[in-house]
Design a protein that fits this description.
Structural class: alpha/beta
Number of helices: 13
Helix content: 40-55%
Number of strands: 9
Radius of gyration: 20 Å
Distance between the termini: 18 Å
CATH topology: Rossmann fold
CATH class: Alpha Beta
CATH architecture: 3-Layer(aba) Sandwich
Largest sheet: 9 strands, mixed
Number of domains: 1
Order of helices and strands: HEEHEEHEHHHEHEHHHEHHEH
Amino acid sequence: MTKYDERYTALNNSFRQGIDSRLEETNIDIRFFRFHSLSGDEKGGTLQDRDSNISENFTFEYPVFTPSGKSKQGEAILLLHGLNERNWNKYLPWAEFLCLHTGKPIILFPIAFHINRAPVTWSNPRSLVNLLNFRKEKYTDDRTISYANVALSDRISQSPERFYLSGRQTWADLTVLFEEIKNGIHPLFKDATKIDIFAYSIGAFLSQVALMANQKGLYSDSRLFMFCGGSIFRSMFGISRSILDKPAFEKLQQYYIHHFGYEATPVWERDNAFNAFLQMITPERFRPEREKLFGSLKERIRGIALSNDMVIPYHGVLEALGEKNAESTIRLLDFPFDYTHENPFPHNTKDIGSLNSAFTNVFSQAAQFLA
């Protein structure tokens, strides 16, 4: 059984963004690779002018956990994170476990405007004081407003379109990354490398859209393991002091459920990515098409949902995949300690034995499916 609490502490003490290192305990190398996003002018959804000037979002480094001493490999696992993440902290033991137990490199790729693709001021309390006070004055007595969510909440409140646009940019980036890997251009991988996905939270939503759109056939053989993810958009509940405040989340839901795709004058290019995204907004619209598609993918999809997950509830997963598909692919679990969607494995819990057991159980299932 993995001592999750110990590995969490050790990895967070040793991990440094942009600096290659070796984990002697598990014989894993952490290597960083530079990426330049070209999707600011992407057809079908350009970033807004004010976001095109955020240099961190266009040129950045991403880490790969890879078994030490191995030459170019023919398989990889992409790990996608959740909404409003500012660092890789909680994902480091996840990547280490998956790398160790599958023997495959784990690519931690940041979603647009997240992790190190965002200005440091977005996560610096001193820089956010004025913005925090402004939102607290505007939305009196709203206790969901916090330093952790205020930057993203303000951006979404100004322009809910950013949710779709950042997803499109990330999807376009992944297209470039997948082609680079599959064509043998990436220094870690051989030609025709097979890429599977481990996705958490909004990363799972992005992965579902990617598999549905299947740009250039790049996802035709990809397997997807979803953890705390997979819900239809309407049933997600992102009001959290670490995700979005209440006013921002309500504006986001209002826009996508009632306006997106209903414009009198066409706003978006209606390509495969747009259509796949649209099918994932509400359970009623496109239900037959969506469930048929997930039915065809069910041998390549597995996942775990948590009973006390308030952000991505299990009923939303049933709505997205269809009950029959979900019941054959997604397991519903519960843990005997206090946890949340945002922190499924609280490393400071007093019930360390149960924590370590829960972590090992979840990631053993993921590793077994993705091995």
